[in-house]
Amino acid sequence: xxxxxxxxxxxxxxxxxxxxxxxxxxxxxxxxxxxxxxxxxxxxxxxxxxxxxxxxxxxxxxxxxxxxxxxxxxxxxxxxxxxxxxxxxxxxxxxxxxxxxxxxxxxxxxxxxxxxxxxxxxxxxxxxxxxxxxxxxxxxxxxxxxxxxxxxxxxxxxxxxxxxxxxxxxxxxxxxxxxxxxxxxxxxxxxxxxxxxxxxxxxxxxxxxxxxxxxxxxxxxxxxxxxxxxxxxxxxxxxxxxxxxxxxxxxxxxxxxxxxxxxxxxxxxxxxxxxxxxxxxxxxxxxxxxxxxxxxxxxxxxxxxxxxxxxxxxxxxxxxxxxxxxxxxxxxxxxxxxxxxxxxxxxxxxxxxxxxxxxxxxxxxxxxxxxxxxxxxxxxxxxxxxxxxxxxxxxxxxxxxx
Length: 402
Known about the structure:
Helix 8 (359-379) packs across helix 9. The protein starts with 5 loop residues before the first strand and ends in a 5-residue tail after the last helix. The protein has helices spanning 34-45, 65-79, 126-131, 180-189, 226-250, 282-287, 350-356, 359-379, 388-397; strands at 6-8, 52-55, 58-61, 82-84, 89-95, 98-106, 109-114, 118-120, 135-137, 148-149, 152-155, 201-204, 211-214, 258-262, 267-268, 272-274, 294-299, 324-327, 339-341. The strands form eight sheets. It has a four-stranded antiparallel beta sheet with strand order 12-13-11-14, with no helix packed on it. It has a three-stranded antiparallel beta sheet with strand order 5-6-7. By secondary structure, it is α+β, with helices and mostly antiparallel strands. The longest helix is centred in the middle third of the chain and has 25 residues, at 226-250.
């Protein structure tokens, strides 16, 4: 939209969970959105046109993690935006409740970056926290958050025999008719799998003979504490060989599999939820709420709460919601002007977050936040002063169904 834009990235490549986090497939859907459905997914699938699957998870988009690094950086470069890499944000400046700048830790030392509007897409809500926005963490009963994971990719799988398994409720069976989930549970009971690993999810990859594995799990770590980040990472790295050994020893087609690549950063499902002008509720997600100020329409993904205090799902299995809207108010942190949120750190409850936290929905939030920021800059006001109708009108001109 022509606004001068800087993307400040704490890692050395763009993409976060999509690249360094090795999270695959891309999950989460919304109503028609050409930016997500055509542009982003089209780019990520690459020239090979990696497959798109349909499971109980809804749409599953597969892609090459390494190729996505250059794909995303090229996309941002062509847009005209500036990029700072290897530059975490460590502080802020404010004036009368309005965010006026961020302190970024560059390789040359701290730098003050001033702007008219800021968007917090850090996942952990780091910028909003530094600005003093209120937040909540974990489930109401005990404050525990969903566990962390290191995803990895294996190769040398015999595709003619190697099964896929997208979750603990997947009815896939072994050649002898035994449910795969029972095999996983028995191996866990024998101590072959790590303490909290009761299912080994095996997703298709972009290339033949490969699988993306979502299985490792570490519970109870504070992933906002650098010492505990290191401890959780080490624990998960130690789990990977045990998961691979289970596959080699028990699952047909996986006898000769080996690790090709693994995540370079923790797969963190849940930390801060920044409280905004509206808190998306359990009921909103369960009953498919509609809002006049919706900037994401008909969001859909399972209420997927990985057990904070054990293996598997916190509620026995993931729950199926109705498609719901995300209102603009969820992107506006309480008490802070000049700031928007996008991604899993927006304003919502623990259970609602368990649905909207995935990448396909986060991309749609980011698009809305970017449009809101550009409107605010052009009009010389804060995002809170931009009517949602203006954001919705711009989204509509881009073909987004609202």
